[in-house]
Design a protein that fits this description.
Layout (H helix, E strand, L loop, with lengths): L2 H15 L1 E2 L1 H8 L3 H13 L4 E4 L5 E4 L12 H12 L10 H13 L3 H13 L14 H9 L2 E8 L4 E8 L3 E3 L2 E8 L4 E6 L3 E9 L11 H8 L4 E8 L1 H7 L3 H4 L2 E3 L5 E8 L3 H8 L6 E5 L1 H18 L4
Antiparallel strand pairs: 1-3, 2-3, 4-5, 4-9, 5-7, 6-7, 7-8, 10-12, 10-13, 11-12
Helix pairs in contact: 2-3, 4-6, 11-12
Length: 317
């Protein structure tokens, strides 16, 4: 084994062990302790986060922020990584936003100039454009850690009509239409609810919760699959050609949009009942270009909103 190969293998081994002694590595790599010490010194000089402790129980340890060993990528694999990151750039809030910028800079600087130029062409010519619908989510990374650690969190939450303190057990996180959502079991309501991250104003406390006490799915995918056809409302909205064009840019409603040869169309789909108010807010400005056929709940929501506007603008004081 060459020295370069040994250093790479040592990085992989150290990352797996986290704690080790020089003697352990010397035995594993069949070299002297002096050679291992020289190798560790070179890794430290290269930025590998090691620290040592003296004494009988001493040894080497890796700092919390470990450095991963090098990975070989093909040209197309390198482009695929940047293409995937391109899809995330219009999410203004990401759990590891600064780290994403840092890793892309490091990665790009290590690539040959011709591949760098090719990636630049991809960035200049291809984008995943998402219409700007954004609310600051300063607690996104904190909630991300709560979810990953499988903890419960007591939060101060501002809903549409009020502010409350409640304890939730997160199921996971997902992003949709520029916003982040956290489905969670709410111990106050004794049922699963969906919380918008930008409406979480404070995480008051975070702590483990008794496993098995609450009906929490094992994964966010399992939750989404189970709820895809539960608590759904069947919506039918008739659209003029102008309404069709406006709905084509909204990815959620575009999934159920059917366009006719005349240019007009209809939205015929199932949607989670919690999204009905958002649908009402979205199509209200359509005016006569959208006619809700069902469900009655959506029609009632529109009537309430129109009545509020009428009270505000049409009735003299």
């Amino acid at each position: 084994m060459s020295k370069a190969e040994r250093l790479i293998e040592m990085m992989i081994t150290i990352n797996a062990k986290k704690d080790f002694t020089v003697g352990e590595l010397a035995h594993e790599f069949s070299v002297s302790k002096r050679t291992i010490l020289r190798d560790l010194q070179e890794l430290e000089q290269a930025g590998f986060p090691l620290y040592s402790e003296v004494g009988a129980a001493g040894g080497y340890h890796i700092l919390k922020e470990r450095i991963l060993p090098p990975i070989a990528f093909s040209e197309n694999e390198a482009k695929a990584i940047f293409f995937a990151c391109q899809a995330l750039q219009y999410h203004r809030d990401l759990p590891f936003e600064q780290e994403t910028i840092s890793v892309l800079k490091k990665f790009l600087n290590c690539l040959p100039f011709d591949i760098q130029n090719s990636i630049t062409q991809i960035q200049n010519k291809v984008v995943f454009w998402i219409p700007d619908r954004h609310c600051d989510s300063p607690l996104l990374k904190s909630m991300f850690l709560v979810v990953i650690n499988r903890h419960a969190a007591t939060i101060r939450y501002s809903s549409t009509h009020s502010e409350s303190t409640r304890t939730i057990i997160p199921i996971g996180l997902y992003a949709m239409n520029g916003l982040w959502y956290c489905p969670a079991y709410c111990t106050t309501a004794n049922q699963a609810r969906v919380f918008r991250i930008d409406r979480i104003k404070e995480i008051i406390e975070e702590k483990p919760y008794p496993k098995g006490k609450y009906p929490i799915p094992m994964s966010i995918q399992e939750y989404l699959e189970k709820t895809e056809f539960q608590n759904d409302s069947h919506i039918k909205i008739q659209l003029t050609s102008i309404g069709v064009k406006r709905c084509e840019s909204e990815c959620l409603l575009a999934n159920g949009l059917k366009t006719f040869p005349t240019g007009d169309g209809i939205i015929d789909m199932k949607i989670h009942h919690t999204a009905l108010e958002w649908v009402a807010d979205y199509i209200l400005p359509f005016g006569s270009n959208a006619t809700v056929l069902e469900p009655p709940e959506l029609i009632k929501l529109l009537q309430q909103k129109i009545s509020e506007l009428y009270q505000q603008y049409c009735i003299p004081e």
